[in-house]
């Protein structure tokens, strides 16, 4: 950090061995600032007018703030004068960050209004809390967001602090630990077809069972141990026996076991895993557009004839059948012939985009 600081500001020189005290000049938005120990500023009258009332804030900035580049901290992209928060805003923020711990800070924007704080749940997973402070902080509640499967609900009063907000976030993470444990086991021991790159907010997994056969499960983040919503996808002659097992063995679901183990017991199958199969075995291209992924979707319509079994994207098959004079439609279902084997095939009408 110190080396990049001096490289970017050649007129700034360290005064001690720890490189926490500097003397020299930095340039901020065409203003040349004379800086010493972060407590004395000498500059043109325009910048003095801009910084009026903020002098004591500079004195509070210490070596800890070197974690954020000086170009960001020292007014590199200062907003218009009328939008600058009052001086006590910065004093309050620095005090709160010192109480919370600077080690938890991942990012601080040049306006000192958007923070990203890192946190870790009880299983060691890393999470990020984004906090957008209002100019009247702490009188106004900040906006908080995180990659979670449930809404992030926090309480805030004019007496609240970032440390208290962070503690609330940790409690939310703890309440979701079992949910993430369940999905992490599925992700590591099965082949996930959708979503392509699951995030911590995703509650759905489409798990490969075999060639053009999969199950889509929707896990409740508040009750991850309960039976999830399940939808079997694939040719009917393959899916039907699995659906029958699911219905017949539903009573065997054990809330004390994981989702993956329960699915194995209820469906009476072993899921293909990265240890036993290549993902290419389940990534067959659409028989119409000849691609695997069409935007965010993968082929999920399969010809029911056992001798064919060709997969298609729902949108591709719908457009294909709709263009054929021999196809017919009843409500939201289109009936027609498979583009490969000419056997009967059906597809639901593509969802209309709003």
UniProtKB/TrEMBL annotation:
Keywords: Cytoplasm, DNA damage, DNA repair, Metal-binding, Nucleus, Transferase, Ubl conjugation, Ubl conjugation pathway, Zinc, Zinc-finger
GO cellular component: cytoplasm; Fanconi anaemia nuclear complex
Coiled-coil residues: none
InterPro entries xref list: Fancl, FANCL_C, FANCL_d2, FANCL_d3, FANCL_d3_sf, FancL_WD-rpt_cont_dom, UBQ-conjugating_enzyme/RWD, Znf_RING
GO biological process: interstrand cross-link repair; protein monoubiquitination
Transmembrane segments: none
Annotated catalysed reactions: S-ubiquitinyl-[E2 ubiquitin-conjugating enzyme]-L-cysteine + [acceptor protein]-L-lysine = [E2 ubiquitin-conjugating enzyme]-L-cysteine + N(6)-ubiquitinyl-[acceptor protein]-L-lysine
Name of protein: E3 ubiquitin-protein ligase FANCL
Organism: Mola mola
């Amino acid at each position: 950090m110190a080396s990049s600081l001096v490289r970017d500001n050649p007129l700034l020189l360290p005064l001690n061995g720890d490189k926490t005290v500097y003397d020299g000049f930095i340039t901020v938005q065409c203003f040349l600032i004379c800086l010493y120990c972060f407590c004395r500023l000498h500059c043109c009258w325009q910048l003095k007018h801009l910084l009026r009332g903020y002098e004591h804030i500079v004195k509070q900035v210490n070596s800890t703030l070197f974690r954020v580049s000086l170009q960001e901290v020292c007014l590199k992209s200062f907003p218009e004068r009328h939008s600058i928060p009052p001086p006590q805003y910065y004093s309050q923020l620095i005090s709160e960050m010192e109480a919370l711990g600077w080690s938890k800070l991942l990012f601080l924007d040049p306006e000192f209004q958007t923070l990203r704080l890192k946190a870790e749940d009880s299983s060691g997973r890393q999470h990020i809390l984004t906090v957008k402070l209002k100019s009247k902080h702490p009188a106004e509640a900040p906006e908080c967001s995180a990659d979670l499967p449930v809404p992030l609900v926090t309480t805030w009063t004019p007496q609240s602090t970032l440390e208290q907000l962070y503690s609330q976030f940790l409690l939310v993470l703890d309440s979701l630990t079992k949910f993430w444990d369940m999905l992490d086991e599925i992700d590591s021991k099965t082949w996930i077809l959708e979503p392509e790159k699951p995030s911590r907010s995703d509650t759905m997994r489409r798990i490969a069972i075999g060639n053009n056969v999969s199950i889509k499960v929707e896990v409740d983040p508040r009750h991850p141990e309960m039976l999830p919503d399940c939808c079997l996808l694939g040719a009917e002659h393959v899916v039907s026996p699995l659906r029958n097992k699911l219905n017949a063995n539903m009573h065997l679901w054990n809330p004390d076991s994981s989702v993956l183990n329960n699915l194995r017991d209820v469906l009476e199958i072993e899921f293909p895993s990265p240890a036993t199969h290549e993902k290419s075995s389940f990534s067959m291209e659409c028989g119409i557009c000849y691609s695997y992924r069409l935007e965010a979707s993968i082929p999920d319509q399969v010809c029911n004839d056992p001798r064919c079994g060709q997969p298609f994207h729902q949108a591709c098959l719908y457009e294909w059948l709709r263009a054929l004079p021999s196809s017919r439609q009843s409500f939201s279902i289109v009936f027609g012939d498979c583009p490969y084997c000419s056997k009967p095939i059906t597809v639901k009408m593509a969802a209309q985009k709003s």
